[in-house]
Amino acid sequence: MSKGKTALKVSAATVAGSVGVAAAACALIAPRHRNARLRQRWEALSVYRYAHRGLHDNDSPAPENSLAAFRRARDLGYGSELDVHLSADGVPVVIHDSKLERACGVEGQVECLTVEQLQQLRLFGSEERIPLFADVLELYEAGEGTCPPLVVELKTAKNNYAELCEKTMALLDAHEVPYCVESFDPRVLLWLRRNRRDVIRGQLSEHFRRDEGSDLGFVRASLGAALVSNVVGRPDFVAYRFEHRHHPAVLLACGPLGAWRVYWTVGNRDDLHRADLSDAVSIFEGFSPEPMRA
User: What global pTM score does this model have?
Assistant: First the structure.
């Protein structure tokens, strides 16, 4: 066989291999097919900007994930992003960290304490307590005029994802608050995929290997950043760390493959403008933009 024919065969094999890899990547990280009803609901959610953990200041009487912070956000027309854990007695509560030291100055874990025990604590030295998720929903529901939506992040621990999903969804069903659900844990999205296909769901992620606070190993960090778990949860949107938005997986999933795009956490007006240019929904912190996207 001539060298020319051999080179052509090698080249063809290389192209075929590249095409195969690209096709496999698309199959892994593609979002689910959204019907007209889901698209209409997303359009209503996507016009808002979302205050990260409420419109908060941890050195003020309205610290993160407090009723005061959510009240401030609601009254100014913002949606809020918030974090839901499950207490030891199975009640959804709103706080970011599972460990209580940063927010409450005590040792312990949310999932190991009852609601009664958790509500004895104070947030960041303020008078605010760890709120029940039901209280946040009632707060948003009680506002005047149109109710802004919530981005509900489910924080799993101790393999409690199914119970957390069930109890969070039961509360959402009992209130007239628009919402979507997101999680870093793909099992949450799988649960929603199997049990609540009517819910708009999102996969949270970032470039974990660039996050000094990440404790994931090399393989899990790389696969998580590459959105490989999308094959399990088939999200409607990808919520990715703003600074890491140029990761190839994000560009593919939220570009040609059509996943809706959410960025966290946008910290200034210049970055907000960049997010708007890419048609991303922004979860913001540290400043007060217009509550609605233009």
Answer: 0.92
